[in-house]
Known about the structure:
Largest sheet of chain A: 6 strands, antiparallel
Order of helices and strands of chain B: EHEEEHEHEHEEEEHEHEHEHEH
Strand content of chain A: 15-25%
Oligomer: heterodimer
Helix content of chain A: 25-40%
Distance between the termini of chain B: 17 Å
Shape of chain B: globular
Amino acid sequence: MNIHEYQAKALFAQYGIPVAKGAAARAADEFEAALAELDNGPVVVKAQIHAGGRGKGTFTNGYKGGVKMCPDKAAAREAASQMLGNTLVTHQTGPEGKVVKTVFFNAPCDIEKEYYLAILLDRASSQPVIIASTEGGVEIEKVAEETPELITRVTIDPAAGLQSYHKRKIAFGLGLTSKEQLKQMDKLLTGLYKLYWEKDASLAEINPLITTPEGNIIALDAKVGFDDNALYRHEDIRNLRDLDEEDPKEVEAGKYGLSYIALDGNIACLVNGAGLAMATMDIIKHFGGNPANFLDVGGGASEEAVTEAFRIILSDPNVKGILVNIFGGIMSCKTIAKGIIAAAQNVEVKVPLVVRLEGNEVKEGKQLLAESGLNLTPADSLKDAAQKIVGLVEAAASA
Amino acid sequence: MAILVGPETRVVGQGITGNFGSLHARKNIEYGTKYVAAVTPGKGGSRFEEKLPIFNTVHEAVAKEGANTSVIFVPPPFAADSILEAIDAGIELVICITEGIPVRDMAVVKDALRKSSTRLIGPNCPGIMTPGSCNIGIMPGYIAQPGKVGVVSRSGTLTYEAVYQLTQRGHGQSTCIGIGGDPINGTSHTDAVRLFNEDPATEAIIMIGEIGGTAEEEAAAYIKAHVKKPVAAFIAGATAPPGRRMGHAGAIVSGGSGTAEAKIAALKDAGIAVAPTPSDIADTLLEIYKG
């Protein structure tokens, strides 16, 4: 789960990480109160969406830039009203962009130098890793590829926790050597690691982290993501979830324990198991089709789950065909076939439907499908199924 | 011979008195797997299915029944604690089926594993099966038959797919291991491949991977340097969009790393036969291994 910058900065403040003074507004009539929290003078206005590249983004109404430096509060109000309710397109949002539902007013900071700082999981060592770079404000992947020598990495033994030498190593790696700045970095890293660990973050990123001409270190941006599997123990974090930032179909699927991700193709897939679901998308592509989604109905593939899955799949107007691929491991293919038949009748599937069943009592399952009177095409293998659905969808398109 | 589990395996089931756990423990026992105890805190002194003694702690199951392997069906908030208890009790092999354990909990478990001699398989995995003698977890037994191909996979149903393809073509398996789809797991692809390579009863290996992390690349490097046995592979997720978690917590392409493309390239570079589609996994191996 991801949160907005203004929410992440509130968490930062809670953990003693220095941020510029700021206030958020969700409607035009909140601008006044929010701006009143800042001093008179220049204000930075930042559009709040779950995507990077906001500063270089463009709104679909033609307004340029999702991050604006404004000379005074009046200009900030004007910029905020241009952003709020409008759609911002950045290199991370895709061409459809994201609607800005919150703006964040910030006190400006004078920048001496920009850095990068993040804590995330290092999968190779299964330990948290702190990554720091002297190149702030740019994407870390780019730095890692082009100038890896500018990156300092420190992995943390989770049992021993963050030590002072870890923090010194990061600070020295960034070229921060004065006693005062070492002290600031020590405090900042202590807070950031504590936040990462206590709140089960999957990523705590500051890009850029800046030094001011006075020598102060401040988090100018904040990006924090959380481990979905740990949200059960963090009510405060769950409350930060913004459903407007998520695909409504994916939210709906989640309610039924289905794992669904929308894609841009026209052949929907309904599969049990995440690996097999990915492989099903791959094989559709392999035979010249385009998958419309990833969908894992879970191991059991019950009638309720399959019915909901059909509903969600068919709410995507691009879907021109459906491939059902179920490997009945423990559960009988007869039970699965009955579920598919009932679900297909419940939701009236009008596009070509190819069903591939495999596993326990597959013969009986296939027979039930054949006798159901439903307009579906049975398939023998995953390959056969993929070729059939791609063929049917192509034939329907050219008819 | 096979790897990790066989007739000598003595299983304690942690959390098998729940619905899901009991269903699969029953199936495992029917298969011939030797379950010697169950552990459900608070239910000590009673019996599972009127036969298996239930204990309050794993330590008791080890001391009284000689359990050397544990299978865990405990819900996610309590699963890491169950793994740590099994490690502390000196269990040699822990198989954790549970899906949804927080990463932070697994980071702590991983640290404890490093300081012990316990091996963990999973979490978020279908388990492990040596066909004909021992099936621990949720894999359907009928898809497999005893034989000489070792199968290792991050995905459950994709494992079934590969194993069943082999069986239908008359080729059995030495051992099938599901290592799980989480970002932190106990046994890696490389660990499993090393065990298969050192097992005289395994003649060929199938490795099934998916997007996310670099475990497949590491296994490819190991295979290139050490493995003479024929190896076939399949990688799922070539069409997955970057930055999205594809069902499994560990299946994500982030910052250009963990792509199917990079994994397939590393596998091919190591001389491994890569199946073009999931339907071709067994046939891809059988082109280079006649059995």
